[in-house]
Amino acid sequence: DNYFEEALKMRNLLEEFSQNHGKFRPSILGVREHVFTGSVSSLASFMSNQETSFVTLGQRVLSNPLKVRMHYGHPDVFDRIFHITRGGISKASRIINISEDIFAGFNSTLRQGNITHHEYIQVGKGRDVGLNQIALFEGKVAGGNGEQVLSRDIYRLGQLFDFFRMLSFYVTTVGFYFCTMV
Question: Which residue ranges does the record assign to the Glycosyl transferase domain (predicted)?
Fold first, then answer.
């Protein structure tokens, strides 16, 4: 798959940093992704459809109206000046945080950043779609959620959000795994 025409849209995407999307200007611009390895097998097709539903429908709702979209390792574009002047991008440490991507979103939101999602541009992405790799990926995401429970960032975000935004944030992070377990 060729994405040259998507590269031509990059200038329009970067202009979104100068627009107001709510109270604050965006600090992370989220874009859709297309998993092009979905045609390898039926299992790969299932995983590709799962990713598509999360990256298009889920991200769209998390961004607007819920305003609880974080950075999930998708091909997002960061405002470098915003993040460097406010303590850096993420807490990337293999021992402390398994899932460092979402902590970048936490830091951006805690520092009054706005995280948006844009549908008019997409980026191609290939995944290793063997059954073992899919299970390892799901385990990594679940382990990262366990690390989120232990972090101070969740407490700080709970202090920052209003009641309804806090409930939306809970259901989209730790609450998903808690409800699944129950």
Answer: 1-181
Q: How would you class 159 by CB atoms within 10 Å of its CB: exposed for 0-12, middle for 13-18, buried for 19 or more?
A: exposed
145 pLDDT above the threshold of 80: yes
Burial of 30 (0-12, 13-18, 19+ CB in 10 A): buried
Lay out the sheet containing 77-78: strands in order across. 77-78, 26-35, 114-125
Residue 68's nearest CA partner among 119, 110, 123, 13 is 110
Q: What percent of the chain has pLDDT over 90?
A: 27
Residues 27, 114: contact at Cβ < 8 Å?
Answer: yes
Q: Which amino acid is at 63?
A: S
Name 29's bridge partners. Answer: 77, 116
Strand positions, DSSP E, 71-138: 77-78, 114-125
The whole-angstrom separation of Cα 35 and Cα 43 is: 13
Distance separating alpha carbons of residues 153 and 15, to the nearest angstrom: 30
> What span, in angstroms and rounded, lies between the C-alpha atoms of 54 and 30?
13
What integer best gives the mean pLDDT of the chain?
Answer: 85
CA angle 73, 16, 144 (to 5 degrees): 15
- The pLDDT of 114-139, averaged and rounded, is 86
